[in-house]
Design goal:
Helices cover 31% and strands 22% of the residues. It is α/β, with parallel strands linked by helices and 235 residues long. The protein has a domain at 28-183: Ribonuclease E inhibitor RraA/RraA-like (Glucose Oxidase, domain 1, 3-Layer(bba) Sandwich). Strands 1, 2, 3, 4, 6, 8, 11 and 12 form an 8-stranded mixed β-sheet that branches. Strands 5-7 form a two-stranded parallel sheet.
Length: 235
């Protein structure tokens, strides 16, 4: 992985997924927001920012998958230990939430290793304990059955789909209370910079609305509004 610069990481951590989705749309990318995936942790917590380290599951088969399959060679266990600190582990469960793709022990291990977050379009068990972690965890739904009921982990750090969105290793995952957006790595720096400008403008517009101003000519801003905003920026 080519590491994110600290500046890009800082800007993304201050940016909403709504703003990022808009910036990606302006670049012709419409399918970037993971569907059916929401944050498990109840506290607002930090914005999740990190490069994707992926894990791919296929449907389980009864003669191959079961409690005895886990070991150091197992792709899921390897991913838990190999996902780099500061990265986000992203699991492709084919949007099947009928079994868990992890639980509190595995999520705690990721958090202890300094991983920036976990995203799965499958289920997750032990959600009450996981919700207490500082590390952001995004899931399709709570689900008590272990992964081998429905899922077979096949390989890691390969292109996957999660929440209907293509995710390539090294793509930048950003998560907030609205959900998770995927930014192609080669666009991350410019998207972060432009998103920061959009956030500043929209914060100013929001303050104008709170001050009683109507949205006509304000949102979107007309020339007069732009001139007032530019004066604000210069000041």
């Amino acid at each position: 992985m080519t590491g994110l610069t600290e500046e890009t990481r800082r800007l993304l951590a201050q940016t909403s997924t709504a703003t990022l989705a808009t910036q990606l749309f302006k670049r012709g990318l419409r399918n970037t927001f993971l569907l059916g995936v929401s944050r498990l942790n109840r506290e607002p917590g930090p914005v999740m920012v990190g490069e994707a380290y992926t894990l791919r599951y296929i449907p389980a088969r009864e003669d191959l998958n079961g409690p005895g399959e886990y070991g150091d060679h197992h792709p899921q266990r390897r991913a838990i230990e190999e996902c780099p600190p500061g990265a986000v582990l992203v699991a492709d469960c084919r949007r099947d939430v009928s079994a868990a793709s992890g639980g509190d022990i595995l999520m705690t291990r990721l958090a202890e290793r300094g991983v920036a977050g976990m995203v799965t379009d499958g289920g997750m068990r032990d959600v009450a304990n996981i919700a207490k972690l500082a590390m952001p965890v995004y899931i399709g739904a709570p689900s008590a059955p272990a992964s081998f009921h429905r899922h077979a982990a096949i390989d890691a750090n390969v292109p996957i789909a999660c929440g209907g969105v293509p995710v390539y290793p090294g793509d930048v995952m950003v998560g907030d209370p609205d959900g998770v957006v995927v930014i192609p790595r080669h666009l991350a720096d410019e998207v972060a910079a432009d998103a920061a400008e959009q956030e500043l403008l929209e914060t100013w517009i929001l303050n104008e609305v709170r001050g009683g101003r109507g949205i006509s000519g304000l949102y979107p801003p007309d020339d007069e509004t732009r001139a007032r905003y530019d004066a604000f920026r210069r000041s």
